[in-house]
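Structure (tokenized):
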């Protein structure tokens, strides 16, 4: 009955969304990537004769988290086929770039027929979900098929916890299908236990994001970006990354105001979504400012006839992590909007002086840790952003102190990937286990 009820709810939701889907397809010429495959649960494997572990990462951030973990997992289990699914088109594009050696597909919609067909087609020995991808029909189908389901790098914010808690009676059965939940913090563990997962099936392994954080500014990718953008070592780089409307405008306002008193200040904008790359480019050019786009680079950026160096726009996917290595001052977007913030670990690892807005509930634990160590600054509006950039641009000692504290915090947290791999090995079905690589 639960499965039937969920199907009815999903059909009603899909019917309500149909006008919007048609509008996107006709007016905006944007199709929902992989919709038919998602609806029918079509997932094809490359090597069906081999054992398979199914990893699911909803979008770009979760896909990137898996880089080190999947590399080490494949080293330990070279004969296992890794299936990686994503929900979003951008996530799929990044997965195709980062993991060409693995089998890629879209995650099925949570209709009972779709998840059942996908599981029968894949026949995984283990399903690994990243962060909080808990879909009830999928969990129940995996339980019926006796497939272990492991949640890794799990997190559940206060707002999400309250929402789940209102339906605690509903979630009790789907959550019983979670074999084990490996979470980032003690607080997240307590919340999952409160929702009904028994304490012996929850463990704290830390955040695997820390392990993939680069700390060497001289790495080849960052060095290539510096050369491509024509940035010299005596310039002060202000990176506004993972931004949403109107955060690019705030950063641009700050840069324009400060350029006269701080001639060495350069601005690099990195919008969160590729759909906004052109809009952000227009925002710059409509002000009469020179612009250098990463996607159109043919030569290093030079000063324009006006005497101003160009504003830099990173309008390519998968390069933000390296771009943070250019930052002396880093504003992490999604935090002056209602997005809830974006990942600030990457600029922290490089030792940038980090700024973000007050709306960072998606990264509450990381934010609290950084602020407790006096390793970041909160800016509450465009004016505070401008004045904080001004203060840090003039105060090299404080800028470097903030960056050093943030970098030390990141390095002290690493090790979650190894703990997560040990957990996956421990839950590998004994009858189908493979020896680890030497």
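Design, position by position:
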């Amino acid at each position: 009955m639960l499965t039937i009820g969920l199907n009815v709810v999903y059909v009603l939701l899909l019917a309500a969304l149909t006008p919007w889907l048609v509008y996107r397809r006709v007016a905006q010429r944007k199709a929902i990537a992989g919709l038919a495959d998602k609806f029918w649960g079509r997932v094809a494997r490359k090597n069906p004769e081999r054992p398979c572990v199914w990893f699911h990462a909803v979008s770009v951030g979760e896909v990137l988290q898996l880089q080190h973990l999947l590399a080490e997992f494949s080293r330990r289990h070279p004969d296992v086929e890794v299936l990686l699914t994503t929900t979003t088109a951008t996530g799929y594009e990044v997965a195709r770039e980062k993991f060409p050696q693995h089998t890629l597909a879209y995650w099925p919609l949570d209709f009972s027929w779709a998840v059942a067909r996908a599981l029968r087609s894949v026949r995984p020995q283990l399903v690994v979900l990243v962060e909080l991808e808990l879909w009830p029909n999928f969990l129940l189908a995996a339980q019926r098929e006796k497939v272990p389901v492991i949640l890794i790098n799990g997190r559940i914010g206060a707002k999400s916890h309250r929402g789940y808690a209102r339906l605690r009676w509903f979630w009790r059965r789907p959550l019983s299908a979670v074999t084990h939940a490996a979470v980032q913090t003690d607080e997240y563990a307590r919340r999952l236990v409160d929702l009904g997962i028994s304490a012996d099936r929850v463990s704290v392994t830390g955040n695997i994001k820390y392990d993939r954080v680069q700390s060497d500014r001289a790495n080849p990718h960052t060095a290539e970006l510096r050369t491509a953008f024509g940035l010299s070592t005596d310039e002060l780089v202000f990176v506004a990354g993972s931004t949403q409307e109107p955060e690019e405008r705030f950063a641009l306002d700050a840069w324009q105001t400060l350029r006269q008193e701080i001639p060495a200040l350069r601005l690099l904008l990195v919008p969160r979504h590729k759909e906004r790359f052109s809009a952000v480019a227009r925002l710059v050019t409509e002000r009469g400012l020179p612009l250098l786009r990463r996607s159109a680079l043919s030569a290093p950026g030079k000063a324009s006839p006006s005497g101003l160096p160009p504003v830099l726009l990173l309008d390519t996917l998968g390069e933000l992590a390296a771009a943070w290595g250019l930052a002396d001052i880093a504003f992490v977007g999604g935090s002056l909007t209602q997005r809830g913030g974006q990942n600030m670990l990457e600029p922290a690892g490089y030792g940038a002086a980090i700024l973000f807005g007050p709306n960072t509930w998606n990264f509450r634990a990381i934010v609290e840790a950084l602020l407790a160590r006096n390793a970041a600054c909160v800016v509450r509006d465009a004016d505070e952003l401008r004045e904080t950039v001004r203060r840090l641009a003039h105060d090299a000692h404080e800028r470097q102190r903030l960056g050093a504290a943030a970098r030390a915090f990141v390095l002290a947290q690493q090790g979650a990937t190894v703990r997560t791999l040990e957990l996956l090995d421990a839950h590998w079905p004994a009858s189908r286990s493979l020896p680890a690589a030497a």
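Reviewer-requested clarification: The two ends are 48 Å apart (CA to CA). The CA atoms of residues 238 and 303 lie 17 Å apart.
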